[in-house]
Amino acid sequence: MGAYDEGSYPCWGLPAPGDVAAQPVSTPSVAAPAAFDLACLADALPNLGSVLWLERRAAEAPRGRAPNARGVVLLDHPSLGALAQCVEARAHHAVTPFGPREWWSFHGHAGDPLAKMFLLPDTDYLAWDEMSAACRLTPSSEAPTHRKAHGAFLRGALARLGHAWRARLLVFELRRLPWLRTLDACAPLRISLLGLELARSIARDEGAEIVSPLHTA
Q: Cα(117)–Cα(128) distance, rounded to whole angstroms?
């Protein structure tokens, strides 16, 4: 995947309230599994700028330590605790009626996603592509299929019973010591109106409770 070209992709767009369930959306293509290298990911994350981060409530942890062949990565933000349990990352790309959407999902031993990270208009697209290349994640060229409207309705109904996901805007910070990396995160100091509205739209689609950008923990 490369950076978007205005002549090849639709512009970022936002759904009108209530339109998501009625619109067909292409199923994302998924990258072939690759060995998960948290140290490589930690090196790349601070270059991204603002992203939308989703974590499962059950996966949140105050702090995590993830041993790695390149040293230990200390996860110093509660939202990043899921990465200590992650054994696989996958890259996704979907073209929706409102524009392209890209994200990574992070999976545990059971195969279920524990966290997701979405590209926003405020994200550095070049850094995103460099991260994918460094971590050897490239979406496959599977032919897309269409989601059914009743599937979107069911996801919305389940979401109303209780949010399984928590979403927040984050920027990352990495501190390096010999054999130790400390990965931290905080709310961005600035976010565009388009980025904020898109983040809210993604959170609705994912059935996630979005945390105010002013809330950093």
A: 11
Distances (CA, A) of 190 to 17, 180, 187: 25, 30, 9
Q: Are 110 and 86 in contact (CB under 8 A)?
A: no
Residue 101: which of 85, 123, 68, 79 has the closest Cα?
123
Q: Which of 74, 93, 92 is nearest to 84 (CA)?
A: 74
Give buried/exposed letters for 40-60 (b at 16+ CB in 10 A, else e).
Answer: bbbbbbbebbbbbbbbbeebb
Whole-number Å distance between alpha carbons of 202 and 25 = 13
216 in a domain, yes or no?
no
Q: Which domain holds residue 51?
A: 21-210
Average pLDDT, consecutive stretches of 10 residues, N- to C-terminus, the chain (217 residues): 46 51 49 71 96 80 52 84 90 85 93 94 96 82 40 49 82 89 93 94 92 57
Tally of CB atoms within 10 A around 160: 9
Inside any domain, residue 96: yes
Asked if 167 and 79 touch (Cβ cutoff 8 Å), the reply is no
Question: Distance between CA atoms of 14 and 132, rounded to whole angstroms?
Answer: 26
| 164 inside domain | yes
Is residue 102 one of the residues assigned to a domain? yes
Round to whole Å and give the CA distance between 175 and 75.
11
Q: Which residues contact 119 (CB under 8 A, 6 or more apart)?
A: 51, 101, 102, 103, 125, 128
Total residue length of the chain: 217
The helix (H) or strand (E) run that includes residue 61 is none
**What's the total number of domains in the chain?**
1
Q: What is the pTM of this model?
A: 0.74
